[in-house]
Amino acid sequence: MPTARTAASPPAFLGDLARSIDDRLAGFVSSRDLPGPLRRAVEHALLGGGKRLRPILTLLSAQAVGGSPARAEPAALAVELVHAFSLVHDDLPALDNDDLRRGRPTLHRAHGEAMAILTGDLMLGLAVEALVTDAPDDALAGRLVAELISGVNAMIVGQADDTLGVRAGGGSDAERLESIHRQKTGALIRAACRMGAIAGSGGTAQAALPAVTRYAEAVGLMFQIVDDLLDVEQTTEHLGKSAGKDADAGKLTYPVVHGVEASRDAVARLRAEALSACEALGPSAGRLAEVCEFLAVRTR
Amino acid sequence: MPTARTAASPPAFLGDLARSIDDRLAGFVSSRDLPGPLRRAVEHALLGGGKRLRPILTLLSAQAVGGSPARAEPAALAVELVHAFSLVHDDLPALDNDDLRRGRPTLHRAHGEAMAILTGDLMLGLAVEALVTDAPDDALAGRLVAELISGVNAMIVGQADDTLGVRAGGGSDAERLESIHRQKTGALIRAACRMGAIAGSGGTAQAALPAVTRYAEAVGLMFQIVDDLLDVEQTTEHLGKSAGKDADAGKLTYPVVHGVEASRDAVARLRAEALSACEALGPSAGRLAEVCEFLAVRTR
């Protein structure tokens, strides 16, 4: 008889999927013709752990629309490469100036700032390359690139808004915060899920895209609000990255703008929204629903 | 009766094409939904002059294969966005640390380092977006993205090799220099020409691609050797960027490795190689040939 898992322990399939994605990422990097130092920098940034949330959502979205997760693998690699690129550049001294990432030195601390800038650039390029290299179908590759790059560009705009306040003056703090969260974190999670549905189905799952998108938008915002709550509540040691830093830096976060209780309410509301999208997708979206439930209660 | 132009004056159509590309670039940027400060940073980096050599090669390659330059316009925008992205990141303090570009402050001097990093990232993303947004044909978009990104990734590897010596120890100085030049400058010029041929013909000019590629590889290397020669021979005021800097920094350049005379001989040999590719393409490649002849004798 299966035992009920506790609220905060991840479903076992998450670890299996993450390890499988780790292997594929390592295989992809070693298949590229890169000079040794650049390869080692990419590996430092890409293969140093991480939850692999985005590529897992890609694979599970393929499954949710009745498609093949295997066909969504290039899209899964692409989205994690983009995520890794964004962390490397966001950590740079001129931006967040972070020394610690996933419990290890950030790339610029380990390999120098010039290498970190170029390695970030290269990982963005490799992400696009993952979608088009040996693509069995140029048209599908073109569609996937369009999804990915729309997420990438929104993410960069969100980061610029968050770090530099480029939209400062437009709208209330609450509006600006929601815009930053939807762009900086949400847009890439949206692309991850939509690419999974499109690639996994070979482009035929058009009818399921609105529900997948609804799931992705709810989970993406929920994920970031939980992140904001963890930044307030957890220690650096537990998170493996600098905690309390956002609040210290006077950055807009959900708990700062709305308070902790209202932030928890928002998490509950977005969780329900994502689960309702999973119901619309049917039993094949069971794992997407499990991921959502775990992300709502995660502690790191 | 038309007067013969002097060796170093550019053919008139170059200026016309550059102005037309300036207009298209400005239109593309203003059509994107960007916060004001980020838009102004992109405009500073992208619209501050420049020869527009790469997009001109894209349009003329479309013409050379009997295709339509108008259909190659998105590819032309994409290649110039990539070029602008690469200049912004290469100029950063951690890399070449340049204050001056096209006679104006570099982006990080004018808008700060964080903005320069993010704006560079965004221009790379916008380059890919230019190829896929409103593409009339997903399959063609997929092929063009593959060409572009192969050029982008080689360019980044070349820059890492040039700045950080990531391949140091492998091969003679002459081999390493040729590898850097082919990657750092050559790969994007190759992509510019190949994208023009593919996009302009709607993907049907397959038979002409080898000659276009041969032209692009010869002109790309020739362009960089001429650049190295100008860095030795010209003043900062004339070039609009810091001159003598490469030699001062002990960087590998053609004149340093091979001497000035041998560098001039290489220019003559590559010019002949590119012109022979134009002959193979026929009269439609007349302007490509004129550009090659001008690039061989340019003084800035």
- Describe the oligomeric state of these chains in a short phrase: homodimer
How many individual β-strands of chain A?
Answer: 2
| CATH topology grouping of chain A | Farnesyl Diphosphate Synthase
* Biggest interchain interface, per-side counts: A-B, 50 and 50 residues
Compute the gyration radius of chain A: what is it?
18 Å
For the record, the CATH architecture of chain A stands as Orthogonal Bundle
CATH class of chain A: Mainly Alpha
Give the strand order, joined by hyphens, for the main sheet of chain A: 1-2
Helix share bin of chain A? over 70%
Query: Could you report the average pLDDT of chain A, rounded to the nearest whole number?
Result: 91
User: Can you write the helix and strand succession of chain A as a string?
Assistant: HHHHEEHHHHHHHHHH
**Tally of contiguous helical segments of chain A:** 14
Helix/sheet category of chain A: mainly alpha
- CATH homologous superfamily placement of chain A: Farnesyl Diphosphate Synthase
How does the overall form of chain A come out from the CA principal axes? Answer: globular
Q: Which runs of chain A of at least 5 residues are low in confidence (pLDDT < 50)?
A: 1-6
Query: Mind describing the biggest β-sheet of chain A?
Result: 2 strands, antiparallel
Approximate strand percentage of chain A? under 5%
Number of domains of chain A: 1
**CA-to-CA gap between the ends of chain A?**
29 Å
